[in-house]
Amino acid sequence: MSAPNIETIVSLAKRRGFVFPASEIYGGLGSSWDYGSLGVELANNIKQSWWRWLVYERDDIEGLDSSIIQNRTVWKYSGHEQTFHDPLVDCRACKERFRLDKLQDSVCPKHADVHPGDDKECDLTEAREFNLMLRTTLGAVSTDEDESALAYLRPETAQGIFINFANVLNTSRRKLPFGIAQIGKAFRNEVTPGNFIFRTREFEQMEMEYFCRAEAAPQIHQEFIDGFLDWFDSLGISRENLKLYEQTPEELAHYAVRTVDILYRFFPERNDEEKQFDELMGIANRTDYDLRVHSKKPEDAEGKRINPDSTEDLSYFDPATNERFYPYVIEPAVGVNRTLLAVLMDAYTEKTNEKGETRVILKLKPELAPIKAAVLPLAKNKPEIVEIAKRIKKDLQPFMRAVYDDTGGIGKLYARQDEIGTPFCVTVDHESLEDDAVTVRDRDTWEQERVKVSELKEFLEKRLR
Ligand code: GAP
Predict the structure, then answer these.
(1) Could you tell me if the CB of 154 is within 6 A of ligand 1?
(2) What is d(CA 249, CA 87) in angstroms, rounded to the nearest whole number?
(3) Which residue's CA is minimally distant from atom 18 of ligand 1?
């Protein structure tokens, strides 16, 4: 089982402290969300899993953390100033604004169930291009109109990697093929943000640019497509909720020769199975476009430098073949927020207890669970029991995220931990005072086992693995 729709997750996320609407006490901001104490842990665990898998477990990838605000020229040569647009239309009747390419996914605010343009009252303008980069001005003396102070919040983390290619290559003394990985915030002035954390104006990306020879690129591309399906599997996302989508030539970005998207079933409630899926990540073969356009040497057909502003040549010299060339780039780009949403949706399960009550269980992989063990005293008015429970929590804490909770009856406490995905509850009861043992309850099976306190850490660590 997985969540029947995103709304179910929105309500769980708010109720239990994963994700809250941002600026809520001032009416919110439409598309912004804040991550609560459990949400931040889950996001961190997803990022750690990605980083560990790519940067630590492989030996051909380096990490990077580049600036959100770069020299504006970066976005000129990357093509974003010229081409990072969405086509917009306004409706003169309802005064609403829509993305031309998403009319079928939008609903007219005046007529429920009608797509903009489909009703005779709709009066759409001609489409016009709208640049998605969020603008700011730098420096104390600047005004909003001052072009020389104009800067952008990065719309992708990728460009920070390309412009640091030579720095990383020279300092790490890497040889092709190798990759550079980065996790960080990106910003897009999306025309139609929505669907909870699926499309927002501020989001987080995990991007890796893998540099290789042109002839090796197609196979490496395929390896990363297969690799990411495996990585999503390791996060507990079931394969039946994932789908590969090969972008058509018309859909490809200006820099790509092939892009395969991995889609997730974010909208299971939709009748049309095709429409249930939307993009979770993209894996592109970006050719040598990026390193070329940021380099000072390449020339156009008339012999003019394509980039007279760059001070660096981002080519690569291969001593084995005596060749100098611009490496190809394979780019797996995945959103942290969409991964978190997919993980929550896929982990969502309902189970009925012996009293006929339906309980939510978040079957998160232990690696991702915000809390690994909750230590619960059966009687909070018994100081000896409370003392043991608090000591157990303290002893576990250096090895795993553990919490102590005595804010309700044991049934309520179990239900709460099930709903936030805690794999194990450890209960200290009256017997514990006699036998130095506790009851460990498994989130998924609700089975209970008696474990000696002295063996508890080892027991949990083994199960969490
Ligand atoms: N460097 C390539 C690039 O940025 P993208 O397909 O535009 O490619 C990669 O973005 C991923 O970032 C998407 O697959 C998605 O997971 C995430 N993403 C993009 N725009 C987003 C938005 N407005 N809100 C949330 N996530 C977004």
Answers:
(1) no
(2) 18
(3) 335
Q: Which residues pair with 376 in a beta bridge?
A: 427
What is the pLDDT at residue 334?
Answer: 98
Take atom 24 of ligand 1 and give the residue whose Cα is closest. Answer: 199
Is residue 394 classed as helix, strand or coil in its secondary structure?
A: helix
Determine the distance separating the centroid of ligand 1 and the alpha carbon of 207, expressed in angstroms.
Answer: 10
How far is 122 from 145, CA to CA, in rounded Å?
35
> What is the spatial distance between Cα 388 and Cα 218, in angstroms, rounded to a whole number?
58
Q: Which pair of tokens denotes residue 227?
A: 């690799």
Please give the pLDDT value at position 207: 98
Question: Which residue from 1, 6, 346 is spatially nearest to 199, judged by alpha carbons?
Answer: 6
Compute CA distances 441 → 364, 391, 450, whole Å: 16, 19, 9
Q: Tell me the pLDDT tens digit for each residue of 12-68.
A: 999 999 999 999 999 999 889 999 999 999 999 999 999 999 999 999 999 999 999
Confidence band, pLDDT 50/70/90 cuts, at residue 97: confident
Environment class of residue 248 by beta-carbon count within 10 Å: exposed (0-12), middle (13-18) or buried (19+)? exposed
Check residue 175 and report its DSSP letter: -
**CB of 441 closer than 8 Å to CB of 410:** no
Distance CA 294, CA 419 (A): 49
Q: How far is the CA of 334 from the centre of ligand 1 (A)?
A: 7
Nearest to 237 by CA among 333, 369, 370, 347: 347
Q: Is the pLDDT of residue 446 over 80?
A: yes
Cβ–Cβ < 8 Å for 209, 180: yes
Percentage of the chain modeled with pLDDT above 90: 85
**What phi and psi values does residue 20 have, to the nearest 5 degrees?**
-120, 150
CB-ligand 1 contact for 55 (6 Å cutoff): no
Residue 172 in this model has a pLDDT that exceeds 80 = yes
